[in-house]
């Protein structure tokens, strides 16, 4: 069910408030609103209305946006704060953004308002998730230190487990560093300033200046994508998601629905053969399926109908060991999931390195991306104690085979 957003509107002009509410309704935002104009009611609403976002006029007869924002900061509340005004002026807007205000919109132009609201809500949600992850990280780190002391006295198998826990801890620490507020906040301000310049100054700039500004915008956008991909990588590094029996059918249909626009544009054809049930972490396998399908869509051949085939079978151990795969330590049957497409593929010499994080086989100008997608796939398979093998052929597509041990 779509979440209903609680919007607290600080506005003394009834006509302006009604116009704002009509615009939000017309944009399709699911929300309830409360319109106020005094400090006392504002402070009360913070405790009773519990707003998800605050939309404030810059100046009111007895109150103003600056005072309201100071109250938010004093209470240490993580509530997006967007100023909507026709008199604020660009200099005041830049000053307030430097102070921490989320964004601003002119009353004369609401066209970007819903986009800025959605972005602000998403960033606020991500901040909450990161704080939860940091708290979990502290707990896991403390537990890890205790475990390491005990593991020094144990056998080789327990020492191996200690190394695995250390690696998980390092990955979580790396994510915490990269996706922390110190990285997200400057990037958000850069994008806000770029938007201000593009809205106000583009016509005054030289052609070279406009080109350079567009390049800055592209780089900032790519940086945001990189942070989001690292967030995905960190999520699959946490291995406490529960296992469930699943045949992937619902997961595949859910991913296809999410990517329906791109699938329609590429005219992709799916062939899903029998899917044998497997004991997996559905949350992580959804990310795996999403990344593999996205990869196929991105690296398709324009003049060729993209065909994606998926199937799974159960291999008895005697059949599995005939594959002569390395790093096999468990004697059991295996669940084998095969994913195949007929896209651009790659030279077989790259069969192993494509799973290395940040590894790219193509220039960024040819194909977008950060080089993290298949590293996430490999991490998910590792979390299931499995093996993934890639077989690429240039201009003939790629086949991924995933083998997950079936434990009693």
UniProtKB/TrEMBL annotation:
Coiled-coil stretches, from where to where? 107-168
Database matches in SMART domains: HATPase_c, HisKA, REC
Quick one: a GO biological-process term for this protein?
Answer: osmosensory signaling via phosphorelay pathway
Q: Which reaction does it catalyse?
A: ATP + protein L-histidine = ADP + protein N-phospho-L-histidine
What CDD domains does the database record attribute to this sequence? HisKA, REC
**Source superkingdom:** Bacteria
Kind of enzyme, top EC level? transferase
Report whether Nucleotide-binding shows up as a keyword of the record.
no
Q: Please state every residue range assigned to the domain named Histidine kinase.
A: 178-408
Q: Name one GO molecular function term.
A: phosphorelay sensor kinase activity
Query: Pfam families, alphabetically?
Result: HATPase_c, HisKA, Response_reg
Response regulatory domain location is 6-122
List modified residues, type 4-aspartylphosphate: 57
The EC number(s) given in the record are 2.7.13.3
* Keywords recorded for this protein, A-Z: Coiled coil, Kinase, Phosphoprotein, Transferase
Official protein name in the record: histidine kinase
Q: Name the species this protein comes from.
A: Flavobacterium hercynium
Name the lineage: Bacteria, Pseudomonadati, Bacteroidota, Flavobacteriia, Flavobacteriales
């Amino acid at each position: 069910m779509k979440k209903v957003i609680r919007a607290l509107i600080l506005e003394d002009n009834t006509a302006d408030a009604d116009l704002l509410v009509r615009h939000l309704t017309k944009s399709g935002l699911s929300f309830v609103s409360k319109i106020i104009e005094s400090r006392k009611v504002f402070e009360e609403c913070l405790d009773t209305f519990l707003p998800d976002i605050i939309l404030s006029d810059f100046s009111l007869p007895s109150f103003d946006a600056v005072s309201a924002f100071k109250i938010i900061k004093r209470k240490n509340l993580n509530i997006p704060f967007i100023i909507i005004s026709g008199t604020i002026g660009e200099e005041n807007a830049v000053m307030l953004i430097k102070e921490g205000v989320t964004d601003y919109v002119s009353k004369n132009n609401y066209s970007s308002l819903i986009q800025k609201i959605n972005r602000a809500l998403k960033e606020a949600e991500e901040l909450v998730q990161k704080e939860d992850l940091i708290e979990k990280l502290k707990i896991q780190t403390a537990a890890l230190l205790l475990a390491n002391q005990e593991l020094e006295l144990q056998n080789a198998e327990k020492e191996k487990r200690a190394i695995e826990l250390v690696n998980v801890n390092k990955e979580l620490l790396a994510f915490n560093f990269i996706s922390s507020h110190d990285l997200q906040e400057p990037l958000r301000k850069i994008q806000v300033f770029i938007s201000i310049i593009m809205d106000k100054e583009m016509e005054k700039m030289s052609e070279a200046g406009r080109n350079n500004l567009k390049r800055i915008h592209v780089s900032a956008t790519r940086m945001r994508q990189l942070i989001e991909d690292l967030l995905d990588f960190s999520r699959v590094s946490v291995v406490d998601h529960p296992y469930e029996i699943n045949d992937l059918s619902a997961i595949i249909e859910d991913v296809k629905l999410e990517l329906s626009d791109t699938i329609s544009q590429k005219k992709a054809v799916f062939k899903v053969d029998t899917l044998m049930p497997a004991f997996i972490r559905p949350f992580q396998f959804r990310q795996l399926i999403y990344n593999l399908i996205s990869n196929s869509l991105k690296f398709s051949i324009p003049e060729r109908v993209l065909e994606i085939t998926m199937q799974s079978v159960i291999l008895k151990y005697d059949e599995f060991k005939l594959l002569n795969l390395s790093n096999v330590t468990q004697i059991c049957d295996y669940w084998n999931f095969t994913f195949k497409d007929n896209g651009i593929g790659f030279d077989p010499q790259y069969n192993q390195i494509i799973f290395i994080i940040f590894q790219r086989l193509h220039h960024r100008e040819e194909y977008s991306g950060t080089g993290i997608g298949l590293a996430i796939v490999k991490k998910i398979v590792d979390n299931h104690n499995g093996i993934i093998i890639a077989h690429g052929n240039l201009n003939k597509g790629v086949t991924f085979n995933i083998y997950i041990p079936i434990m009693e």
